Structures are given as structure tokens and as C-alpha cells.
Amino acid sequence: MKLTPGITRAGEGLDGIKWNILGQIYVPKSLSETSFSWHATFPPGTFVPPHIHPTQDEFIYMLEGKFELLLDGREVHAGPGDLIRLPMGIPHGIFNKTQDTVKCFFWVSPTRKLFDLFWGIHSMKEQNPAEVVALSARHEVDFLPPPEA
């Protein structure tokens, strides 16, 4: 995966790709061995449960809307213009608990297996939690168990 020069146009993804990942829309913008980026749209009420990337640093630049995050055991909030830094090995969850759509730009470094994971989730006939968690673990993303009630 070598980065090629060029422009990925607004509203377009690499090779026309647009994934549905747990109710969110991910549009890949760049891909190389050292980094992978995508535009994400989170409708109201959608989220990514707490998880860890043991082999990647992850970043989110907020464009529109507000996220509530669980970051290393703390609740934090991010809005337009904020950059969220998620170092490898640090547990984090991402939640749109508002009535507004969130638009943001994600990237990870290095890419590792995340691009393949998104294809796998998108291609599932039904994205049920147990299958998503199992597939994610095989692609170096470890979801955390739900908190005890």
C-alpha cells in the first residue's frame, strides 16, 4: 500500500467506497501502510462502544456536531474544531447522544488491519454485536466488556 499523489474529492471515497459501519457512514479518503483516513457521519444515537487499538494511534477532527467520549475511564466532550487524540492502548468509546448528525474526519497510524476490518463489517449480512466483536479482535481492535450493572 503505497500512498499515491492526488485529490480525493469532497463527497467521494477512494474507488467510490462508502461503508455502513454500525449505522454510521464511513468514506475512506486516503490509504497507505503508514496511515488510513476516512470521513464519518454519525446519525443521532449512533456510537462505537468502548474499545482499544493496541497497534494504532487514532485521531478524530470534529467538523459538525458534538461527541460524548469515554476516554481512558473519563467522560469528555468534543465539538466542531476539536481534535480528539486516542493513543494506542488507551480505551475509548465514541457516542453521538444528541439529536444532530455528527460529521468528522478520522485517521489512524499505522493502518494495520483497520481498512480490512471495515470491509468485513460492511459486508456482514447482519451487523450483530457478537460477530462484529469477534471480527474486530481478528483485526487488532479489542472491544471491552460492558460495565457490570
Order of helices and strands: EEEEEEEEEEHHE
Instruction: Output the CATH topology of the domain at 24-112.
Output: Jelly Rolls
Structural classification? mainly beta
Any guess at the CATH architecture of the domain at 24-112?
Sandwich
Rg for CA atoms: 15 Å
The pLDDT mean sits at 95
What percentage of amino acids are in beta strands? 35-45%
Share in helix: 10-25%
Low-confidence sequence ranges: none
CATH superfamily assignment of the domain at 24-112? Answer: Jelly Rolls
CATH class of the domain at 24-112 reads: Mainly Beta
Query: What distance lies between the first and last C-alpha atoms, to the nearest angstrom?
Result: 44 Å
How many strands, which pairing sense, and closed or not: the largest β-sheet?
6 strands, antiparallel
- Report the principal-axis shape: globular
Query: Helix count?
Result: 2
Strand order of the largest sheet: 1-2-3-10-5-8
Number of strands: 11
